[in-house]
User: Fold these one by one.
Assistant:
Number 1:
Amino acid sequence: MKNLKTLIIAITFILGLESTAYSGDIEEGKKLAFDRKKGNCLACHMIDDGELAGNNGPPLIAMKARFPDREVLFNQIWDPTENNPNSFMPPFGKHGAITKIEINKIIEYLYTL
Amino acid sequence: MGNIFHKFLLVLVLVNITAYASPEEDLELFRDHFKNRFPNTEFSDYKNGVYSIDASSREQWESIEDFPPYELNIEDGERLFNQPFKNGNTYSSCFENSGIGIRQNYPYFDEDTGRVMTLELAINNCRKDNGEKPLSYYKGGPMADISAYMAYTSRGNKFDVKIPNSQEALDAYEAGKKLYFTKVGQLNFSCADCHVYQTGSKLRADIPSPGIGHSTHFPAYRSGAGRLVTLHERFAGCLNRVRAKPFKAQNEEYRNLEYFISYMSNGLEINGPGSRK
């Protein structure tokens, strides 16, 4: 019983730590997604509470349900021309506009939508 | 559905335009594309750029045009145009019809030099031939003012750019077209991505205008810049935006690009100088 309690406390502690790291990433991911000099995803997608959203890409909603496979989402941001050679969406990762780490933070944020 | 239609068109336009279509066939395809895209826009209205497709910004623009911000530029341009060079000649000696009402014929293919001749290059060539220093193509100033005045005297005339049936002229046209349809820069956009395929859609608060009627109103007074902007400066602005390295004004790439987009504006009235956001 005592052991279980310690375990629960330990787990809560670990999860707690993890989720603070997480929420930092989520916040940063949102900034990166909205920043004109970084992802600038808002230029083309309606996202969350973003103002002056563009409308030539689909709204980024229900991301977890629509992109259960994280890799698929990563690849779309890394290089959408793999899927659609004429894509209007820039190959952000491939062309070095944003880094892998930044894309991963954006994904953390997208998964909250 | 809209997306599928778009993709279909994209393939259609790309295949047709990049294959060996004649300029006349390109022009027909181009016009048809915009006719389908904007069924409510009259052909003649494309000279008004984005305002031909976006009613909400049009009203504001029309009220700006009631007190045109470029009026002084036209006056300055007229004065400079008529001011004799040191040798006593004026610009009028270099141009057909003394330089009045001729904007619609530029650019043209100059068979002697085998190059595309734009109005602004011709203005500087005129100076050179008369022993004067060339004017800068940047930041407005006398070049933009003279160009604006010459456009102003041509208002109402319809664009009439000719592609002679010579290999060299066709090559120049094809080079311009190729640049127009090639994805460039870190963000990987072609001119056509924004001004053909996604024209009318929103990029944040910007709506890319239709790629037809793109040179009718240049130079344009941009309220953001607070001055006249030449066509080649505008090209550079769009290239900067996609993080591509812009070319120098009046170099061969831009002259060929201007040749292509101006040919695509044939039949539209000159209404330069214009005003834009």
Number 2:
Amino acid sequence: MQTHERKLLTIITEAAIERALIADARAFGAHGYTVLDVRGGGPGGEREGAWEADRSIELQVVCAADVAERIAEHVLARYAPNYAVSLYLSDVRVFRAQKY
Amino acid sequence: MTLDPVILFFALGVFARLARSELRLPDALYETLSIYLLIAIGLKGGAQIAVQPLAQLWPVALAAVALSAAVPLVLYPVLRAGVRLGAADAASIAAHYGSVSVVTFAVAQSALSRAGIEPEAFLAMLVALMEAPGIVVGVLLARRGMAREAGPGAAAASSWGTLLHEVLFGKAVVLLLGGIAIGWIAGPRALEPIDPVFVGLFKGVLALFLLELGLVAGGRLQDLRRAGPRLLAFGLIAPPLLALVGGAIGLALGLSVAGVATLATLAASASYIAAPTAMRIAVPQANPSLSIGLALGVTFPFNVLIGIPLYIELARRAAG
């Protein structure tokens, strides 16, 4: 079966900016996204997700390499200075090229 | 007077956290309990508004909104000059105190009914009205202060439209106002079939919620070490002073003893549901562990353990 190269952009951050991030990802050309509720810790402390202001999300976007790069640049410039942000890119192969 | 069991549940939560117990309430339960509490408080207020004259409501509502908006204006300069915080942190903390804590209100109601006095029913509406103004004023203060610190280039993090939507249609306001509207429209008789859930179970649910809040507050205590003694002192001194202002307004408006104590409690309380999320979106430069550590780690326990009994006693003396 034929597969196509795409990027998986994973953004782990504070739940407070979920809506803004999704709107931004869409605006930069992402066709779809997946959000997971997560918890964890980093150099800035623990985020246990026990209540509203302490929640964290993992936003996953499968998209073309240039779109992933534009979203990542935007997230690093706009959100990373003030929010807890963990961000990475991985290679994935998708079956239906037009969907991503 | 024996201790209210709901307060002992809070203490158990703090203890479990400090003892590093593995106890952790599921996120879904926290969410469910907070939704329940907001609806139950709204319904109770709405049902009683339905059978009471409203003439007394409007001046109290206006005063409450003005009080919520004025608190950050008074606290901001104190936090800047007295506690020596930057503009973003000072404005964020001021906004948390301008907004109100629903659970502190619920604990005050519980304490008042144990004391055998019931406040005016429409005070539940004040909780909804006092959520937003303090937050909006806090954001204005932050933007003005940061523009002065960093010059006009300091970009605003989000539009006013997004923020107002967050504040006015956030969970707390929608559920409180929704509960009030349902209670008001249906009236006490029509609500009787659902009373076993929303009235009968209220104190038990409040106890469980306070167990959860104890766990969260216990976890916030380490933030306070970073906060320093000035901020800690602020978290203990500001509530009783704000309570005096709220109580004085209640007296001037001619509220009952329980009403005066409730308004004092609302004035003294600091938000940790609506304000943290709104400030995180509107003023991301502010350090949330300072404001939340203070609201939940210092002011909430202070109000629940010492403040509320004190405010009730003061209200009794002032009105009696």
